[in-house]
Amino acid sequence: MKVGRAAWAARYYRSFSREAVLKIAEAVARAGHAKADEFADQAVAETGFGVVEHKAIKNRLCTHDLLDYYRDMDLVTPRIDAARKIVELPKPAGVVFALAPATNPVATVYYKAMLAILSRNAIVLSPHPVAKAVSAAAARHLAEAAEAAGAPSGLIQCVEEPSVPLVQDIMSSDRINVIVATGGTAMVRAAYSSGNPALGVGPGNAVAYVDPTAGVDAAARCLVESKSFDNSILCTNESVVLTLDSNRGNMERALRSAGAHVCNEADTARLREYLFGGEGFTLEAIGKSAAWIAERAGIRVAPSARVLVPVVAAPGQDDLLFREKLCPVLTLTSAVDFQQALTFARHTARRGAGHSAAFHGEDGARLAAFAQEVPVYRVVVNAPCSQGAAGFATHLPPSFTIGTGFAGRSSIGENLGPQHLVQWTQVAYGKDVPADLDGIDLDALTTGSAPAPVPGHEVAPDRSATPGGFGRDDLRQLILEELRSLRGELK
């Protein structure tokens, strides 16, 4: 029923004008910003992941900041290239089915809803079961604001009781036009195999290289700020910091000064056993504080410790601590020279292929070599990787869906934006024939607004009474399709 309702909303919304779209987007941004703190508190209470203050920051960044970034990107108005005799008409996807993770539940709901609004699509959100209550509340709040601003009912919806069979059922529905999958590898793979178009992402395992030319204290502050932000729940956070042997002592000192606890050999062993002693990563550590993890691992640290830094002497070995860790644990290692550092960075990044890396230093030649050799599509320079790769500490597009491209077996390599949810029909005249472009009435393709379908038992108005609305024949056809679908006759 939600998917069907979204299809009706999308059909109306695709004729809205740019002015009407921006009015709705503004209303949703205001509503989301107003409850950013409240939903952040609810998210931490429900999931146990992260830091309330940091989640509130992420929530706010996905309101006005996100809208301002894309405000001038026109995905509504037809384009005319007179010189090439081509007319381009925007075609929204229709119904977007969006998966939201437990790690960034509200920020992802805000972000994906805003992308759908700006691209004139309807969206059905499916949260992680661990964060279903706060995700549904956030979606309802945005939906109410959108409808009050003139959006059709059903434009923003959320699955309140998600389950794997239900999600798989929705993903394979012929009424879903595109899936935006943010979550675990298994769910992303399921989205790609659903039979519907999918925009999915892969896991991160960012490696940060600190060159001897870097200001070591500034680099350490960036690393600690990034790794402690929201208890390192973002997939863009640094997993390993790599430097040269000649610089490792300086790095340890600088990390301590920045608020990190640098582990000795015994502490490193305890931490490795706690985090990876079972079958894979210890899930209870996700999004917990450094002090909380240290206590469970049997390590004595100051209560003010923001990050735990286990030290692995040789980068060549396949240590478990070189894997992704969605908690404030940052592995430190060092190489004999830059060439060995490059080799290790390539090896480490393959576990988060296509994702992100960081470079600290002033050597342009080494930066270029690092960016070329490491299999990632974002390299953040002299800034925190968590915020930088996500576009909040750099000029990259702000995003909570980080495309991992060919390297990460993803369909996009850049940060997901509303432009990925629109495709364009190109009307192309022959090179040697006349083209009366002035005779094409493009103004008739959009309206200032459109009538919203009534939720539940809709009765569509007659086409003659409502421009762009459903006629009786359309309504009969939709009802027949619904009946055939229920009998299993419509595939």
TrEMBL record:
From the record, give the transmembrane residue ranges: none
User: Coiled-coil region(s) at which residues?
Assistant: none
Domain of life from the UniProt record: Bacteria
Q: Which UniProt keywords apply?
A: Oxidoreductase
User: One Pfam family of this protein, by short name?
Assistant: Aldedh
Quote one Gene Ontology molecular function term. oxidoreductase activity, acting on the aldehyde or oxo group of donors, NAD or NADP as acceptor
Q: Where is this region: Disordered?
A: 447-472
Q: Which part of the chain is the Aldehyde dehydrogenase domain?
A: 6-246
This protein is called Aldehyde dehydrogenase family protein
Species of origin: Pukyongiella litopenaei
